[in-house]
Amino acid sequence: MPPSTAHDPATESQVPMNPRDFLILFSLVDQESHGYGLVKEVERQSEGEVRLDPANLYRSLKRMIRQGLVEESDRRPAPDSHDERRRYYAITGFGRRVVTREAARIDKLAAAARARNLVPESE
């Protein structure tokens, strides 16, 4: 069951989220990732509708680190991977609460859109 975000002013202050930030956090929910992995996962999750360029990705990650949503992971690639500079990122507990709250907000909006026949019912 998702963590509760009821009446959490810190969480509520982060919602609504920028869609790009939501997709970055959403991509980190199940596993840590490095920058290129995040770019590919955001593209996959959005079915190609959102493509992050590295400058925007790292700008977003730096801001989300300052906000306490994401942290740099201690994980490093294997020494034989030829890229020891690669940094991995992980969602924090606070980031998980925020992305959970934003997902619930989006779900309510989608339900309202379906009720008005703006979005067909999924099969």
Protein architecture, described:
This protein is mainly α and 123 residues long. It has one domain: Arc Repressor Mutant, subunit A. It contains five helices and three strands. The chain has helices at residues 9-12, 19-28, 35-45, 54-67, 93-115; strands at 33-34, 70-72, 88-91. It has a three-stranded antiparallel β-sheet. The chain is globular. The two termini are 24 Å apart. The model has no long low-confidence stretch (mean pLDDT 86).
Shape-level CATH architecture:
Orthogonal Bundle
Task: Please mark out the parts with pLDDT under 50 across 5 or more consecutive residues, or reply none.
Answer: none
Largest sheet strand order: 1-3-2
Gyration radius, rounded: 16 Å
Distance between the termini: 24 Å
The number of helical elements comes to 5
Number of domains: 1
Coarse shape: globular
SSE-based structural type: mainly alpha
Helix-strand topology string: HHEHHEEH
The CATH class designation is: Mainly Alpha
Overview features:
123 residues, mainly alpha, Arc Repressor Mutant, subunit A, 3-stranded antiparallel sheet, 50% helix
What secondary-structure arrangement, pairings included, does this model have?
Elements lengths: L8 H4 L6 H10 L4 E2 H11 L8 H14 L2 E3 L15 E4 L1 H23 L8
Antiparallel strand pairs: 1-3, 2-3
Helix pairs in contact: 2-3
In short:
This protein is mainly alpha-helical and 123 residues long. Helix content is 50%, strand content 7%.
